[in-house]
Design a protein that fits this description.
heterodimer; A: 247 residues; alpha/beta; Rossmann fold; six-stranded mixed beta sheet; four-stranded antiparallel beta sheet; 8 helices; B: 408 residues; alpha+beta; 2 domains; six-stranded mixed beta barrel; 10 strands; 16% strand; elongated; ABC3_permease_C (chain B); hydrolase (chain B); hydrolase activity (chain B); cell membrane (chain B)
Chain lengths: 247, 408
Amino acid sequence: MAHPVIQLKGVTRVYSPGSNQVWALRGINLEINRGEMVAIMGASGSGKSTLMHILGCLDRPSSGQYLFANQDVTRMTPDRLARVRNREIGFIFQSFNLLSHTPAWENVCLPMIYAGIPRPVMIRKAMAMLARVGLKGREEHLPNQLSGGQQQRVAIARALVNEPSIILADEPTGALDTRTSIEIMALLQQLHQEKGLTIVIVTHEPDIAAYCERLVRIRDGQIIEDRPVPEPRLAARELAALPVEED
Amino acid sequence: MDLYAALTVAWRGLLANKMRSILTMLGIIIGVAAVIIMISIGQGASAQVTSRIASMGSNLLMVMPAASFGAVRGAGGQVNSLTLDDARAIGELPLVQNVAPEARSQVTASFGSRTWTTTVNGTTAGLQAIKGWQMTAGAFFSNDDVDRAALVAVLGPTVVANLFPSGFNPIGASITLNNLQFTVIGVLPSQGGGFGGADQDDVIYIPITTAQRRFLGQGVVPNSVRMINVQAQDTTSLTAVQEEITSLLRQRHHLGANQDDDFRIQNMTAVLDTVAAATGSMTLLLAGIAAVSLLVGGIGIMNIMLVSVTERTREIGIRMAVGATRGAILTQFLVEAMILSLVGGLIGVAGGIIGSKVVAMLAKWPTVLNPMAILLAMGFAALVGIFFGYYPARKAANADPIEALRFE
């Protein structure tokens, strides 16, 4: 039985700087069910970033309908959208987007601050989440004292901490080397399998898309392909096969 | 997001860039300190002047010559309408307690090889009672000395210091004033500086009769005096005394009903009011100048906050992505601006208090710390923080999260 967490119906997004209109999205129909791990692929300029912004409630469609967990996001006020982002969506960015000069644990606390969670609970959850992503002992580190992979783990902890319905990852391995990329994908696959987390990964790398169970390909603002991936790569297994590296 | 969270977030934001926060605060610190120092200087001056005038006695009147039609003028253009006899007549009035006319001239005093140019002031014994002087040494001259036009002198401390070697007891010493021998019989207590910095201690008092005969020359009007100090029995009888003197002098000066007074009577209370008003407006002026610096401090806050908002665009984007509402962002930056201005204000208050003490110590200028002024400066600083923090904060809150996240 399918529980769609995301339903896009004929979604368009038109930018109109002056008179010449730019169609970033030209009628997207997409359903993503709870517990899926989906890759959205496309070249730059294909509209995948715009789609990601709309999925992440950072932007609103020009026309069409977007239902998030059966709620119509299309007509929500900016404050309501902020609330949806806060409670239901966890973002992972290519450039990590951690607050500099701010220790790892406080970065993880950020979504909880805006959720109004009491401070003691907040600190406890942040510490637990950092341990979960393998950063125990590095809670007080500042982002610039952490490696790229570790920074992305902090970002993942931050994305997970409010127990969102969906994780939106925008090129999550774009700034990482191959081994670290596999490590991050292993972590995401693990979270997906153990907790049934819904994960949407936006990427232009087929290698990364191959870790997902479903592939949505987008070009010129339209979906041109939507198929299951027959045998997704298993990051954990690949990692075990790799020669051990000094950390 | 509750207030505590907002404060923590804002505090963190400020700590992340300590140097900039401190520099921003500096404007407010200087502004608040300046307001407090300026007001305390102004009020100190006002308090000093007021107390000095009050110490002269609130039951005092000063009768001075005034120009009127047909009045006789002296060489300097001064009016010589009052005489020693006028003073004596005033002294006969029932409600008058003491009368002391004054007539002054410049003299060169010498003792041995030392000389000193000073003011010689002729008066009567009544002046000591009017001024309430406790003599430092010796005694003031008596009315008997005045009647005899005795050659005796009472010296101010400045004159003593300049005419005698230190430690020398001047009582009984023989000094010459313009080649005339006088015996020193008393030394006045120190009275400090007068208005405009004139040294009130640089003076020699001699009987007015002696002064008129020996120093004032044969004036156009014999017996003329510069002014007459009158002490009423008490403050309540002041108005009555003023009226009595007016009618007495008009009668003595043979003034017709349609003629103006050829004298004027000054009431110390009136002088006090005038001086209070003058020092009040000086305080206001100083505070106004200081307030301008506070305003500049506020503009500094706005400037830095605007830079800060631009610099932290990405942070704003991140916060919005993880669920910060526009209100939360607005609050954060507004609270940051308010912390800057309030902490700056508090440091400024401390600086202002210390500063006004330092001014009091170094410039020997009494300063009066006014709690109202401190509150006012703090309140103004807080307002400045809100006012100049609002625009940058709104700019931050209105940022587009997508654009903000892309910002490098």
